[in-house]
Amino acid sequence: MYGNCPFCDIVTGNKNYQEVLSNNVLIAAMDHRPVSKGHIIIFPREHYENIYDIPDDILAEISLTSKKVSLALKKAYNPPGLNIIQNNGQLAGQTVFHFHVHIIPRYDNEYLNYLIEVAKNRKVASDNYLLKEANYIKAHLD
Q1: Whole-prediction pTM value?
Q2: What CA–CA distances, in Å, run from 65 to 35, 43, 57, 99?
Q3: Active site annotation includes 100
Q4: What is the DSSP track for 71-130?
Q5: What digits encode the pLDDT tens for the residues 17-75?
Q6: Catalytic one among 39, 47, 100, 102?
């Protein structure tokens, strides 16, 4: 366990939480600062900082659990939209440096309107640029 990690504090029993589902690998709990009704976080019991550190089998279990919880949210609230978000690094919006996934039901256009505004500023890349970048990334695949 890592010092000053709220998810490790949950695992060790030093912080209260509202459990949705748990097993020997992960915990799914209500987010204590929900973006919307039904906002759930899923995190491994072991401390892994981000996507680069987490073992594949644990990541797979979190992914399958994300689907299971999403289906439960659909049955419970039937939101017209749902985000599954996982941030890596401060510049990507990660604020707790213990791997976790947010499942956020969406009930209105607030987030959609934000995405539309962001999309307006995106530029179309040339095929040559995309080919160069794809080849560069391919060269780094293991």
Answers
A1: 0.91
A2: 20, 10, 12, 14
A3: yes
A4: HHHHHHH--SEEEEE---SGGGT--S-S--EEEEEE-SSHHHHHHHHHHHT--PPPHHHH
A5: 999 999 999 999 999 999 999 999 999 999 999 999 999 999 999 999 999 999 999 99
A6: 100
